[in-house]
Structure formats: C-alpha cells, structure tokens
Design a protein that fits this description.
Blueprint lengths: L27 H11 L6 H12 L1 H9 L6 H13 L17 E5 L2 H8 L5 E3 L14 E13 L1 H4 L9 E8 L1 H8 L4 E4 L1 H13 L3 E7 L5 E8 L5 H7 L5 E2 L3 E5 L9 H5 L5 E4 L2 E4 L9 H5 L5 E5 L9 H15 L1
Parallel strand pairs: 1-8
Antiparallel strand pairs: 1-6, 2-3, 3-4, 3-5, 4-7, 6-7, 9-12, 10-11
C-alpha cells in the first residue's frame, strides 16, 4: 500500500554516525545490556539470549510474528522446541494475554508521545501496573534518553507492499539505541529530539497510531515508539483479532452531535474500527476505542474529543509520572 498521504519520506535515509556510539566492533552495548540485566529481578540467561535474537535479527523475528516471513520446516521445529523450554510468566496465561504477556504496547496520543522523546534526564519508574496493565514489562527506565535512533519499521518491511515511509520506528535510550545501530546500520540512524518529534507529527498526520513498546526480554521495560498503520502493524492486527497486545491510552473518544458535520471522515479513518455511522452522527464503541486521537485530528467540525475513561488504565503521561515519583525518591534519600 502506498503512503496514504501521498507524500514521500521527508527524512534522509543515509545513516549518520552517532557521536555517542562506542566502537561497535568491541560490543560494549551488549556488555552494558548484560550488566543491566543482572540488576533486573528474575532476568535470566534465556531472557538475554531471547533479547540477542530479537535485537540481532529483528526483521526476521518480527516478520515471523506478522506472518510476512516463514522458517523452513526443520528450523521451525527447533524454534518450537526452544519455545517450549522458555520459562513461563506466572498468571499470564490465566490473564488471557497469551504471547502478548511480554511484548506489548501502550497507545499514546501525539502529545504524550512527544514527552517520550523530549526527556532531558534519566528516568526510573517501575511497577506501572496502573498504566501498563501487563504481568511483566511495564517499567520506564531511561538512560541517556537523548540517544534516539530512527529505524525502518520491521512490520512494514515484512509486507510485500508496505506503507511509506519505512523509517518511522523510534528507539529511545540506552543500551537499546546502540544495539540497534550496531546491528542495523543500513536501516537505522541516530537522530535528535527535534527530528524524532517531526517523525511523530508526520505519522500522526497520516492517520497512524503511536505506541510505547515494552518487552520482557528488553530488560522488562520501555524501549521504543512504534508509529504504524492498521494494514502493516502486527500489534494492531493482533489487538483487532482478540489478542491484547496493545493497552488503551486511558482515553475514549466522545462526540458532540451539535458540532458534527456528518461527513463520515471519522468512521473511515479509525484504526481500530471503533466508529460506526448511524443516522447523522458517529456511534463510538467504547470497548474498541483505544483513545489514539486520530479521529479527533481529522474532524473538521471539532465535534470529537478525548476524555479520560476511569475504566481504562491511566494515561502514560511521562512528565506527570516523573513529578509523582519525585517526592518518593526524595523521601528515600
């Protein structure tokens, strides 16, 4: 599928050297990763090997998950045997999360996504079950958050006719940014916060959704922002098909029928099929709505808005979470 906006990628594709990246041949990023993993409760050697496979062969890993790539039969058998040996997360299957238990995202509206690329200090926020409602992988621990990498989207790259541009995934902080540059130089480059924000805004204008992604093997914490479309994104397709790989932003769309122009644009653009048309106004399915804000931006009559839904997990407002954590940190000091 072509770029829905009809625009070419506005960002250069030639990789630029990262001034903060060590000599990749010496592999310091993996040593840093291993050392940080030793401080994570329950992080095992299997988790580290899982992380290595995921970071080293990201495009194959994601391609297999989305169905865009296939393993030979013998290798599929080996992979299945290894998967059966993997330690299981207590309570995950009972919660109905399936494979989403350790690899999942939090939908974030544009303003919230901006906060994640505009961090000016290291951050440590743990056990955010009220924000990211999963048994594992729900911490925000950012080291060197100004180290940001733009990566060609593995979900889009696995499709025969992907949406464009490809360079829309953002890797935030260390040791993740260095790992991605170490293994995916032809498909990744270091960028600053200004360009990261430009990517977020351009993808939002195309009607695409921002997700803050978490993974158990990636030290159980936030490491990337996905900016994707329902036709390419594996997590969005899984969520629409009943596997909850995405958590709500914490908001739900509401309509002011008096302001509605009855144009139907909102129902056409909703990435989660949460809007239907009835009579002269949209009907919103609150269960399906993920509070991404795509429909709000496209509504010319300004009839749509996002409202906090207390039945859904709390929003991922990084600045607010940091402010809440500060008194607790001072009390411990």
């Amino acid at each position: 599928m072509a770029d829905p906006s009809g625009k070419d990628a506005p960002f250069p594709s030639t990789p630029k050297p990262a001034p903060w990246l060590h000599d990749r041949r010496q592999g310091p990023s993996w040593r840093t990763f291993w050392n940080e993993g030793r401080d994570v409760a329950g992080y095992s050697l299997f988790d580290f090997l899982h992380a290595y496979v995921y970071a080293r062969w990201t495009y194959l890993y994601i391609g297999l998950g989305t169905g865009g790539r296939h393993l030979p039969g013998w290798l599929r058998s080996v992979a299945g045997a290894v998967a059966r040996l993997a330690p299981q997360t207590t309570g995950a299957d009972e919660a109905g999360l399936g494979h989403a238990r350790g690899y999942h995202g939090k939908v974030v509206p544009l303003d919230h996504a901006r906060q994640l690329v505009r961090v000016e200090q290291d951050v440590r926020l743990t056990d955010l079950e009220h924000v990211i409602p999963y048994p594992v992988a729900r911490d925000i621990v950012l080291h060197n958050p100004d180290h940001i990498v733009a990566l060609e989207c593995p979900c889009r790259a696995s499709r025969p006719s992907p949406c464009l541009p490809l360079e829309v995934c953002l890797i935030v902080g260390e040791p993740f940014a260095s790992l991605v540059l170490q293994h995916h130089t032809p498909h990744a480059r270091s960028i600053g916060a200004d360009e990261a924000e430009q990517i977020l805004e351009a993808e939002h204008a195309r009607g695409h959704v921002h997700h803050a992604f978490f993974k158990d093997a990636m030290l159980g914490r936030f490491y990337a922002i996905c900016n994707c479309c329902p036709c390419c994104c594996g997590a969005m397709q899984s969520t629409r098909n009943g596997t909850p790989m995405l958590a709500s932003s914490g908001y739900v769309c509401v309509v002011d029928e008096a302001e509605c122009l009855a144009c139907g644009a909102c129902a056409d653009c909703c990435p989660f099929d949460a809007l239907a048309w009835s009579s002269a106004a949209p009907v919103i399915d609150g269960e399906r709505c993920m509070g991404c804000g795509v429909c709000v931006s496209i509504c010319e009559g300004e009839a749509l808005s996002l409202e906090r839904d207390p039945a859904k997990p709390a929003p991922l407002l990084l600045e607010e979470l940091m402010a809440q954590a500060q008194p607790k940190l001072l009390a411990r000091a």
